[in-house]
Design goal:
Length: about 190
C-alpha cells in the first residue's frame, strides 16, 4: 500500500510540474501554437512513466528545467548581460547562435545550456529564442545527456564538440532533439556555417 501511495504522490507531483511548465510556454509571433504536454502513460509492471511522445517523464522534467532556466533569455539583452556572446554561427534551419563559454565545462546540466539559438522574427526583426544547445568537448563515447535515448548528439569535429539541440521554445515537427528545424529560416546573406 505504501508503494501505491508513493507512486500516486510521485505521479501527482510530476503532473503538476508538467502542467506548470506548459503554462510557461511562450506564444511567440513565430509560432502560433504552444507545445502541449503528452498524455502520461504508466507501465503497471515497471512503474515507468512515459508520455505519448515516447519520452520518459524524466526527460520532460529536464526539458522543463531548461525552459525555466532560459525563460529570461527571450530578451536577448538578458542573455548578453549574463555572458552569452554572438559566435557568428548562423545556420539555415537552426538560427543564430549565442554561447556562454563558461558553461562548456565537460558536464551536462539541462539548466545550464552553453548555447542559445535565436531566430529573427519576420514581422519585427526581433530575435526570438527558439532552442537551447548543449556542448561537451569531444569524448568517446558520446556524452550522457537527457534521460532516455531520444537526444541526438552530433560529433562536430570543426568545433571539437559534441552538440545537442533541444527545441524547447519553438516546435520542431521533426522532433525536439533534431538538429535542424524546417520551420526556422535565416536570411541567406546571414548564413556563416557551413
Amino acid at each position: 500500500m505504501k508503494n501505491v501511495i508513493k507512486l500516486f504522490s510521485l505521479v501527482s507531483v510530476l503532473l503538476i510540474s508538467i502542467f506548470m511548465g506548459c503554462q510557461q510556454d511562450v506564444n511567440s509571433p513565430l509560432d502560433n501554437q504552444q507545445t502541449q504536454p503528452g498524455n502520461l502513460i504508466i507501465n503497471p509492471k515497471t512503474a515507468v512513466v512515459t508520455t505519448n511522445d515516447n519520452l520518459p517523464l524524466a526527460t520532460h522534467l529536464q526539458l522543463q528545467a531548461a525552459k525555466a532556466a532560459t525563460a529570461k533569455y527571450h530578451d536577448i539583452n538578458n542573455a548578453i548581460e549574463d555572458g552569452y556572446v554572438d559566435i557568428d554561427v548562423v545556420v539555415q534551419n537552426m538560427g543564430y547562435h549565442y554561447m556562454k563559454p563558461s558553461n562548456i565545462d565537460g558536464t551536462f546540466d539541462p539548466a545550464k545550456p552553453p548555447i542559445l539559438v535565436y531566430s529573427k522574427n519576420p514581422e519585427n526583426g526581433k530575435m526570438d529564442l527558439v532552442a537551447v544547445e548543449y556542448a561537451i568537448p569531444n569524448t568517446d563515447p558520446r556524452p550522457e545527456g537527457f534521460a532516455g535515448d531520444a537526444d541526438v548528439w552530433e560529433n562536430n569535429t570543426d568545433f571539437g564538440l559534441w552538440l545537442c539541440h533541444a527545441w524547447v521554445w519553438y516546435n520542431n515537427p521533426d522532433g525536439i532533439f533534431n538538429e535542424f528545424n524546417p520551420r526556422v529560416h535565416v536570411d541567406e546573406s546571414d548564413i556563416t556555417y557551413p
